[in-house]
Amino acid sequence: MLSRLRSAARILLKGDPRKNKRNPIPAITLEEVAEIKQFFSREKFFIFGHARSGTTLLTRLARLHPEVHCNYQAHFFTRQPLLKSLVNTPEAEEWLTRKSNRWNQGGDLSALVLRASADFILERDAAREGKNIVGDKSPSSTIHGQAVRDMHAVYPDAKLVYIVRDGRDVLISERFRNFVEESKFLTAEDQRIIADLKVDPAPFTDGRRSIFTEAFIRRVAKGWVANLKETEDEGRRLFGDHYFGMRYEDLLQTPFNEMSKLWNFLGVKSVDAALGEKIKAEMSSNPDEEWQAKRNEGIASFLPKGHAGNWSRLFTEKDKAVFKEVAGEMLIKWNYEKDLNW
């Protein structure tokens, strides 16, 4: 009996050590947001987008503004293990909710731990740059809508920027990145395509040969559709006027106009016309293209990097048919096509 009483007292004070699953991590409250902004006051934004959709270019352009800093791929919400892994264990929950822990005011400190960790990482960089608006760009190719929900649970006051690119060009860019890097996920059929492409690229540019396998088209196209639908739906639902959707192709065509809209959305005081020249200079370079050329020049030189419409010279009729089946309606929704007759 004495042993049981001691065990009950220990559980009351320290929690149940046998618990093997934590309760859901609570979302940060608006009161907690107000409190933490007393310490981390800079405005925050996050750039999401399917991989190979222009998130890197957008980051490089966004931080040209004297008030805006943006850096690369913290993956707080977009790639495992995610920011929430810091507190997503029974042990962390027990520690942060323990009744003898007088700092938690009878609640769960998990949301504040997550917010403070991310805020410090972001603001440390921004302080070094002397900028008061700071964001992270992290491609959101696999987690889709859950990434938006996880972001909102920690940053309901932040702004979400979502950039979309024609899924057919996404498909090509992702394919060639895998080729250049000689990805470990390439199949034997993929390897045969690479070998043939190096010997004679002509059949791959006139519709006789495809650079894809059907399985690759279906997998990437399905992921692209899910990413667009879930991210936009959840972005608009959760963030409202703090959600900003844009197209990569519009950024290429009218860069100063698109960046002016983005900067104003982020809350800058003004947009100087002189930034137009800085944008042109930044867009004249392509570090990713240079890196790929160094990695595998023979394959990289086959495809002009960053261009819109590369798909039109590389898709075979079968490629088109498969893509239409999986993602044709999403092309229409984002105004890449008027109908399926392409």
Helix content: 40-55%
Largest sheet: 5 strands, parallel
Quaternary state of the chains: single chain
**Unreliable segments of 5+ consecutive residues:** none
- The number of helical elements comes to 15
Helices and strands, in order, run as HHEHEHHEHEHHHEHHHHHH
Radius of gyration, in Å, reads 24 Å
Strand order of the largest sheet: 2-3-1-4-5
Beta-strand percent range: 5-15%
Helix and strand composition category: alpha/beta
The residue-averaged pLDDT reads 92
What is the CA-CA span between the terminal residues?
79 Å
CATH C-level? Alpha Beta
- CATH fold title: Rossmann fold
| Form type | globular
How would you describe this protein?
The chain has 342 residues and is an alpha/beta fold. It has a single domain (25-333), classed as 3-Layer(aba) Sandwich (Rossmann fold). It is built from 15 helices and 5 strands. It has helices spanning 2-14, 30-36, 55-62, 90-97, 110-129, 145-154, 167-181, 188-199, 214-239, 248-253, 255-266, 275-283, 287-300, 311-314, 317-333; strands at 43-48, 68-72, 133-137, 159-164, 243-247. A 5-stranded parallel beta sheet has the order 2-3-1-4-5, with helices on both faces. It is globular and about 80 Å long. The model has no long low-confidence stretch (mean pLDDT 92).
Provide the fold topology.
Layout: H1 2-14, H2 30-36, E1 43-48, H3 55-62, E2 68-72, H4 90-97, H5 110-129, E3 133-137, H6 145-154, E4 159-164, H7 167-181, H8 188-199, H9 214-239, E5 243-247, H10 248-253, H11 255-266, H12 275-283, H13 287-300, H14 311-314, H15 317-333
Parallel strand pairs: 1-3, 1-4, 2-3, 4-5
